[in-house]
Amino acid sequence: MPVSTTPPPAQASTEPPADAATPPAPAASPAPRRSLIHHADFRRLWGGDALGQLGAQLTVIALPVLAVDHLAATEWEMGILSAAESLAFLVIGLPAGAWVDRMRKRNVLITADLVRGLVLAVVVAAALTGHASMPLLIGAALVISVCSTFFDVAHQSYVPWLVGLDHIVEGNSKLQSTQSVAQVVAPAVAGALLRVVTAPLLIAINAVTYVVSAFAVGRIRHREQPPAPETRRPLRVEIAEGLRFVVHQPLLRRIVACTGIGNLFGTAAGSLSAIYALRILGLDTVAFGTVLSAGAIGGLVGAVAADRLARLVGEGRIIPLSAMLFVPAAALPPLAVVLDVPPVAVLIAGGLLFSFSVVVYNVAQVSFRQRLCPPALLGRMNASVRFFVWGTMPLGGVLGGWLGTSLGVVPTLWVCAGGALLSTLPVVFSPLLRMRDLPRPESVETTA
Question: Region annotation Disordered: residue ranges (predicted)?
């Protein structure tokens, strides 16, 4: 996401001005030795997230199969579809953060789930009646992208309020574990089901899970109080505060650069994964689903081990160390066409390594920035980070489609492996590699 953004002139503090609305402090942490499993509201959020993730992972395999096998999508069309799935983070990501900070985040989560479920229902109806098309899929992806932008910003900003700052790592680890389990189970189930049902029916399951997720989140009792309308300032001022916080934190800048470059080339490679597996390697849908599921086991292991690894090697050091694993993970898939090893085994190995490294990296860096950021800025900070690190994803989709058409799929995958190497440089050549403990808010404020 090499998007150039010029922040307003620096101020002496990253805190909002005195006249800004001050939200209540984050929810008091449960007793130190009491797991979040005993936190009723977190269980509701966790359960809703689990259902949404499970359904979304069914669509991860069903949508490309629908596009490639049923609509004969080209490399360029798959690139555009991939770009549409994340375009909103680039276009409205920054104002979304300011808007979320003005709203009750629980309501944002519910609305986003319901709209995503409705859009998927339209896609299913069109497919079952023979009216599906690539423009329809791309349009649906754009709407879902907008909803996901608001959902993700609100979700990352809501967790600290709900569980308390002392339990952020545990909360993020549990949520990442759920996502990893969904990534393990759903693609294999989807691949097997596609032998007996059509792709639209799998997408219909996702529509239902979004509705059930909205119901689960709606049962959360915790109600954060948004700032009073009369205390709001111009949108550009509030957006600038979030940008300024990210840009003025040296460690955050490096993390954002690593994640943004990684997402650029990761999305470029991912946009061609279905064509590579189904057409070039000749895998069927069952094998494709098995590859995605088996590879995701690495993410499950990473989610379970992330907290322990951070304590073992250091919460600062774990960020560049996990990023180094991006490179071999990206190099393994294009090797599947030349190694004297079953392609499925090579793809699974690459997926295992990739998902493990990404989950460990994400748990560490997301927890760091949630803990570092003042509560009043959480939505805008998360939106600013998402703007930079997810804003590169639509560019990556277009890049993947263009390179795939111009160079071919396999050469494009090698270009993306080189991009993975490039992405590690900002964090490998940084103070993070020598830091065991990451700075806390008080240490940042005293050195500002």
Answer: 1-32
